[in-house]
Amino acid sequence: MKRIVLLAMAMFLIALLPSCSRQRAVTGMGYAEGQDQQYFYSDMGSNTLLTESEDGYYYFTGFYLCYTDKETMQSSVLCGRPECLHQNETNPERILDCNAYFFNPLFLQYYDGDLYVAADKPLSTQEKELTQVSLDGAKRKSTRTFSDGASAFAIHRGTLYYTGQIVSDGGESCHALLSKPLFSSNEPEILYIGTIDSNIGALLCKGELLYFSDNYFTEERFYGLDYQYNLQTGERTLLFDSDQQVQTIYTLYSQGLLGQTSQLDEENVWQITEQFQTDLYGKNRREVLVPDPHPGTRLYGDTQYLYQYDVFWHQNARPTEEQKLSVISADEKEIFSIPTGTLGVRNFFPGNDRHCFLYAEQSQSEEKLLQWYLCEKADFADGEGSPILLMEMNAEQAMQGFAYTAE
User: Fold this and answer.
1) Which of 25, 120, 281, 342 is deepest in the core (most CB within 10 A)?
2) What percent of the chain has pLDDT over 90?
3) Does Signal appear among the keywords (predicted)?
């Protein structure tokens, strides 16, 4: 009898192992692979549509989830249905049958063996849905539906962080930063409440720190506030305060924060006043000197290089033919550059130690193409590293089910 009881207990403990793996605690400031948000695939904290697993890269081309194998560099639409036409489907009733299709995707992240996608819920004008997707794309499971105007998302160490509308104690609708355990049905915890007009976003996580922004207008001025939130203590620290005349933009990388401050001159043109680096807490600030600084650029970094990227939509952007991505060495010298303007690049992602990524929109004749490119960082030191095309789709086909107008 005793042997039977012990055997039953052992089987019970074994059955618990999968669920326990989902809830293992991770602490400290180091990067925990598979558990931490992949901040290096975020474009200035905007919702990320690129992520990686141990074996490959996943990304959205329009409304279609795609995959590139790290070993073979072969790319495909992540559907798994041999009869599916994917973006080439012309029957509107069959578009939703493609396993790779998500209507207006807002967020993509690999976490603990699965993919998580936040997108507009099909046939709904108000709701968004967070879906758990298997790595082969064959299985989907809805984990949560949002009807509170959720707009920014991050998954980090077992917790879902997102922004949405709440009703304040005074009965007003306010934008807020919320959190809840990813695999729990509990009500979310409110971490920060903005104003009625707040736009909270740019969620980035590193170790035990969460970074976010709150932008809003009052009668007196514009507020562009960048905060750091300690996930262990609940302490919130204001890092940067921007207004109509002076703006500070920053990015998170492995060694801290990279930023630049610009100021409007008398001719209403932005001029850089400082480019800088700090530690993860916004302290120990030092000047960064990069070749050819320009107010229409952004600084990024990884463990090897700094990157200066021309933002195509900036008010004072350089002419298209002059826009580029500069790869800058540790001694702050440009060693390689990529012409991003003529390539139609819209987003840059620093990526991991091997690869960085570019997302582009190219107009050819009357057709607009959506394109993903990869660059081999190992080639940068030799003055090489030209972009390698991973995926290309016709924009109209890639965004079926949504009104898309080419510029």
Assistant:
1) 120
2) 74
3) yes
In tens, the pLDDT along 186-225 reads 899 999 999 888 999 999 999 999 999 999 998 888 999 9
CB atoms under 10 Å from CB of 280, counted, come to 19
> What HEC string does 218-274 produce?
CCCCEEEEEEEEECCCCCEEEEEEECCCEEEEEEEECCEEEEEEEEECCCCCEEEEE
- Alpha-carbon distances of 253 from 87, 126, 279, 312, 325, rounded to whole Å: 35, 34, 10, 22, 17
Supply the pTM of this predicted model.
0.90
Task: Yes or no: say if 373 and 389 are a contact pair by the CB < 8 Å rule.
Answer: yes
Query: How far, in Å, CA of 329 to CA of 337, rounded?
Result: 12
Strands 75-77 and 173-181 come out as: unpaired
CB-based contacts of 207, cutoff 8 Å, min separation 6? 28, 29, 30, 31, 36, 280
CB of 356 closer than 8 Å to CB of 303: no
SS3 1: coil
CA distance 57 to 109: 10
How far is it, in rounded angstroms, from Cα 159 to Cα 30? 17
Domain ranges across the chain = 31-206, 245-407
Sign of CA dihedral 64, 314, 238, 293: positive
Position 18 scores a pLDDT of 44
Give the separation between CA 251 and CA 204, rounded to whole angstroms: 9
- Number of C-alpha atoms within 13 angstroms, CB side, residue 290? 31
**CB of 374 within 8 A of CB of 387?**
yes
Contact 375, 349 (CB under 8 A): no
